[in-house]
Amino acid sequence: MISQKYKEMLGAKSVIREMSEWAGARAKEIGKENVFDFSLGNPSVPVPQVFTDKMIELLQSRDTMELHGYSQSQGILAVRKKFAQFLNQTYGMEYTAEHIFMTTGAAGAVAHAVRAVTQPGDEVITFAPYFPEYNHYVNQTGAVLKIVPADTQQFQIHFEQLEKTLTPKTMAVLINSPNNPSGTVYSEQTVKRLAELLCEKQKEYGHDIFIISDEPYREILFAGVKAPYISKYYDNTLSCYSFAKSLSIPGERLGYVAANPNATDGELISAMCAQISRGIGHNCPPSIIQIAVAEVLGVTSDLSVYETNMNIIYDELVQLGFTVVKPGGTFYIFPKALEADSVAFCKKAMQYDLVFVPGDSFGCPGYFRMAYCVETDKVRRGMEALRRFVKEVYNK
Amino acid sequence: MISQKYKEMLGAKSVIREMSEWAGARAKEIGKENVFDFSLGNPSVPVPQVFTDKMIELLQSRDTMELHGYSQSQGILAVRKKFAQFLNQTYGMEYTAEHIFMTTGAAGAVAHAVRAVTQPGDEVITFAPYFPEYNHYVNQTGAVLKIVPADTQQFQIHFEQLEKTLTPKTMAVLINSPNNPSGTVYSEQTVKRLAELLCEKQKEYGHDIFIISDEPYREILFAGVKAPYISKYYDNTLSCYSFAKSLSIPGERLGYVAANPNATDGELISAMCAQISRGIGHNCPPSIIQIAVAEVLGVTSDLSVYETNMNIIYDELVQLGFTVVKPGGTFYIFPKALEADSVAFCKKAMQYDLVFVPGDSFGCPGYFRMAYCVETDKVRRGMEALRRFVKEVYNK
User: Are strands A144-148 and A123-127 parallel, antiparallel or unpaired?
Assistant: First the structure.
């Protein structure tokens, strides 16, 4: 019989998708170049040529049954070895292949990580503002997502609120730095304080608490900003990664879970993820993409345009009197709206063909997200529209 | 805290994997060519050149952000349209893109289909002998897999046993024709009788019962055998397909669910699957593979070698006095073992470097599976080993 649960979900469309669909419809009316669509977090820089060349080389030279054959259920062993070595060199870790589980993007990684360290009824904590899909990644496993209210001063962690949210049922803390939607990068101080607090709580509760660290924006960092590698600071860490943003290949669905070798059962977690896969449709990512990416590890698309765009937008927002925290990375910025109701604010902006996403979607009403993975010229023209909007609607 | 459920699964390794690992180890001792490994269902014929050429052409000509960009959550619309058209032409159906949901292989398809039409506690029926992963695809959703004992005469459906297994909690029947492990193709008579019975039961129980039809071997059919397209005979059918076997690309994880347009909520099921995806790690298959496969629809690898191999093995088995049903398709055959304990039979065969999988794994003890996706020369040499084995151990 048709599942009512999923049928009912059809009514509740993602607001982000809705804004983006409106933008698409509007583009048909007035031309795509005239819609300032800051709604979707879709990479806007080309895939590195070396990746394309590697794909072609593999197709021309490899035995087809080897190239397109089944990978082991944890992912191709040779690929996992390379990823482990790369992470060790880059972040001073001590992973081996057995700590790595290949997934279909960061979504697949988080979905597996949550199942590996919780059971139905357990609590997973995350911090507003947060990526709304976390609700699904967590709640559909039977665990319960608890939200810590935002530190709207800096979008670091509101530790007093976190302490109130932790309970003996907390089995995992899901973090995302560099952050979607705020663009904030957790400081070393934040990460250390989080690690200390969770160590204390592990002792107090007498069980493990895992950090599930969602890191698809790890390489998109702006001048002078360092992103602490979370797993370096806390043993019970599962790092979830995706190549979607760093290589501009979101459609190819490649990511991984890397379990800290010192985590409880750290050497078993990847194998456990392979067991989890059996029930959720075998998330093994495509063989050719696994092999090609492993050959170009460390290469990224030219990500510098995101910083260029961020500076243009940030400066303009400051000039216009917005309250805004300067992003340390990603391709997002999360200013305070000019009225308390950020949905109303975003709707008014649409009259100027500016497409933003209200902070309500991220558990942080009163703010709005701009995704600036957009051509720089359009960003500039978008700022003109923003000035008109702010002047005409808010007299600023 | 580490999930005990998945940790405990690590102990219970798949027997098929275990046999295959033994074969790998043995190959290191005596050379791969001397191990007659009939354990794994891995395609053994090359990928069609036209697929490789298409992949290279796409990489050389398309905009990289378009080629590797996010696909819609149900799969790339243009691709789904082509798949719908192809199915309509081939099987006389009336699908549109909205009935198609792209998945990571047949595993992803079945995992989504089960969730779409059951809720925890519901029953899903399948027929022995059956693919053992069905236990995971179904039981990890919270539904319960019920097994109908085998019709060992023909490996069609044992309808008396099916009637005993149906209850008001039955929400789906999971079938697999052409069948792994028996190689049997359901006759039109079988399919019609199943459809009639389920129609009756739908009325009697007052709710829908779906057929989830797992069809990865749809194109591997032997001389004179026709495979009825299940969905043509029963409206409430979700057809689950994979290109793993037909194009020899199992590692690229491409498949789909096609919901019969006349099924209850047939036009919503694909969209519901996209909602299901959000909780299990977004199974969207890789963009470039979606696009490339859509360009070569109808093309398959040269699958004729499987029939050649089947005939060699079938004739030999008959000659040696085995009880065996002649396969109508796939690359499997499922003879009766020469002693009641088929695990003991398979272990004895290993002493002759023959690797079979005991029927116990498929819910059908006393039989064994041979996967003949193996070079024909090796099949021939394997038959020599089989003759020696049967003569020396069973005096036949």
Answer: parallel
Tens of pLDDT, residue by residue over A9-31, are 887 767 777 788 888 899 999 99
Q: Residue B20: what pLDDT?
A: 80
pLDDT tens digits, A202-250: 999 999 999 999 999 999 999 999 999 999 999 999 999 999 999 999 9
Do A272 and B117 count as a contact with CB atoms less than 8 A apart?
A: no
Alpha carbon of B139: minimum distance to chain A alpha carbons (Å): 8
Angle, nearest 10°, between helix axes A342-350 and A376-394? Answer: 110
- pLDDT at res. B13: 67
Counting Cβ atoms within 10 Å, is residue B193 exposed (0-12), middle (13-18) or buried (19+)?
middle
CA gap A172, A207 in Å, rounded: 11
Residue B236 CB partners (closer than 8 Å, separation 6+) = B198, B202, B208, B209, B210, B211, B260, B263, B264
Locus of tokens 């509101």: A158
Instruction: Please report residues of B whose CB lies closer than 8 A to that of A45.
Output: 65
ipTM of the complex: 0.94
Beta-strand pair A255-259/A100-103? antiparallel
Q: How far is A156 from chain B (nearest CA, A)?
A: 25
CB within 8 Å: A104 and B283: yes
Residues in chain A closer than 8 A to B112 (CB atoms):
281
Exposure string for B260-297, b = 16+ CB within 10 A, e = fewer: bbebbbbebbbbbbbbbbbbbbbbbbbbbbbbbbbbbe
What distance in Å separates the CA atoms of residue A162 and residue A250, rounded to the nearest whole number?
32
Residue A284 has pLDDT above 90, yes or no: no
Instruction: Let me know how long chain B is.
Output: 396
Low-confidence ranges of chain B (pLDDT < 70): 13
Mind listing the pLDDT tens digit for each residue in B324-334?
999 999 999 99
Instruction: Name which of B115, B171, B286 is nearest A253 (Cβ-Cβ).
Output: B286
The set of residues, in sequence order, having a beta carbon less than 8 Å from that of A145 and lying 6+ positions away, is: A123, A124, A125, A126, A134, A135, A138, A139, A174
Strand B357-358 relative to strand B368-371: parallel, antiparallel, unpaired?
A: antiparallel
Q: What is the CA radius of gyration of chain B?
A: 21
